[in-house]
Amino acid sequence: MNSRERVLRAFKRIDGVPDRIPVQFDLCRTLSDHFGKILNIPVRYTENLYEDVTYRISANELRVAMGSDVVITGASVSDNYKIEKADDGTWLNEYGMRMRQGDIYVEVVDYPLANAETKADIEAYRFPDPMAPGRFRDTEALAKKYKSDYLIIGDIEVTVFSLAHQLVGMEKLLVDMMMETEYVIPLFEACADYQIEIGLKLIEAGVDAIWFGDDFGTQTSLIMPPETFRDQLKPVYKRMVDRFKEAKPDIIPILHCDGAVADLLDDIREIGFEVFNPVQPGVPGHLPLDMKNNFGDKFSFWGAIDQQDLLPNGSDEELERDIVEKMSILGRDGGYMIAPAHIIQHDVSPERVLFFIELCKRHGGGC
Question: Would you say 189 and 244 are in contact if contact means Cβ atoms under 8 Å apart?
Answer without folding.
Answer: no
